[in-house]
Design a protein that fits this description.
alpha/beta; two-stranded antiparallel sheet; 27% helix
């Protein structure tokens, strides 16, 4: 397992190998999972209030990186509810009856309607990214523009 530490003042990210996943999760406030796991890697009781999780691992039927119980009381977001219900991280809590598809907010709607965003600082938020190419391109372009404005990063021509 790898844990990342972001130092915003230095505009860099440090990655460190960890062997104690529960301890790493307990001290993290932003967690990104990027695996093809079919068994939950992150348990609900490890996650602290106020934590945000991005589940971006390989999407397929049976995929599961997060404990379905983690969705109880959490604010869940995705890029496309029907797609995520079939192959994304939210498929498991939906099948288990922990949440209903209508409780999951499409990320674009939360940008248009601020009332759909985080309710309080202690809320656990989860974003289940199933990969909508247009959204990915828009986000990548925004990151590129901001990096250029701040004079950070390296442009690579391929």
């Amino acid at each position: 397992m790898v844990a990342g530490l972001i130092d915003h003042r230095l505009s860099k990210v440090e990655f460190t190998g960890v062997t104690d996943l529960p301890a790493a999760v307990q001290r993290s406030r932003v967690i990104v999972t990027a695996t093809p796991s079919t068994k939950p890697l992150i348990q609900a009781d490890w996650v602290q209030p106020g934590t945000h999780l991005n589940a971006i691992g390989a999407d397929m039927e049976g995929k599961q990186e997060l404990d379905a119980k983690l969705f109880q009381g959490a604010q869940a977001y995705t890029d496309d509810v029907p797609q995520a219900s079939e192959v994304g991280e939210i498929q498991n809590p939906i099948k288990a009856g922990v949440i209903k598809p209508e409780q999951v907010v499409e990320i674009g709607n939360s940008l248009l309607d601020p009332t759909l965003g985080r309710h309080d600082a202690n809320a656990i938020t989860i974003f289940d990214s199933t990969g909508i190419a247009l959204q990915d391109l828009a986000a990548a372009n925004l990151a590129f523009v901001r990096a250029k404005e701040q004079g950070v990063g390296t442009q690579v021509d391929l």
